[in-house]
Amino acid sequence: MRRYLLAFLAICSLSAVADDNWKPFPYEQSAFDYSGDKLRQAWPQLTRGFGANYPFPDADWVVTMATTYPKALEMTVTGNTGFTGKPEEAEIYASKLQEVWRLMFRGDFAEAKKQGLALGVGGQIPAMFAQVVYATFLVPNQEEKHHLLEEVIDYTDKAGSLVQADTVAMFGRIYAKARLGEELPVPVVLKRGYTSQIPKELDALLAKQPQQPFALALYGGYEAGVIRKVGKLVGKMTYGVSADKMETYFARSFKGSDNLPIGHYEYANALSYVYGDDEEQKAIEHLKRAVAIKPINAMEALEIAHAKQLLKQYEQKLAQN
């Protein structure tokens, strides 16, 4: 599946640049040091949300991609990346690509985007994933946030059906649409086709990686979000969503990995959207589970901080009753 990555990325524009005014990561980063061999050793845990066996971008992977996709190699060479396709250069290129992932996991999002794009077609997956995380959690201005998320979608639009070649690319695209769908007016969401695109793209992703925890939690959140906006009856009749399906997706996500903060706070939100105050205690329980997780990368630290805010709101509400 991943072997099509360079071909997919070759279609994408390299026009985006990392803004110098991106906010820095607001928390301590020392625990997210994956220098040297630490990255490979921690890779299965760092990428557990992507599903099992997400490939490590080492020199063997680079050589395979360059050999399999000569057009992608040509674009990498002409992109002034310093890689000409020689096997002896693969280790250097792979080390640079690994550094982009280190930057993303550490929370140096602007630098991850900058260095990722500088690698040409090979570095755009971690670069754009860094942008999705940054936009979701660190951009206070809604217009800017939407612009950054729309830019990620635009990159994958240019790739067409080849976006389906990589599960992280697929998830990043859907996640951007889901976050936009939560905040944009319903008529805009309908006009853009997100209500049909999100489940269709999630189905395609889960067909390739049936137990990807991120995708399953996002699907559960989508079901709940539709119910929140249009109600259970209209949601079921028009969009095919239901509380039972929401519960099933989250149960599958937790079975795949129950130590992802995003899964627990997304479920807490979903419980509120679908059941209101009836499942308040269950929502609080899952928020407490989220904040009890020790983050192993910057994204998880941001997710836990978000869960703490939600938990505080619940506790304040209970105190007032």
TrEMBL record:
<keyword id="KW-0732">Signal</keyword>
<protein>
    <recommendedName>
        <fullName>Tetratricopeptide repeat protein</fullName>
    </recommendedName>
</protein>
<feature type="signal peptide">
    <location>
        <begin position="1"/>
        <end position="18"/>
    </location>
</feature>
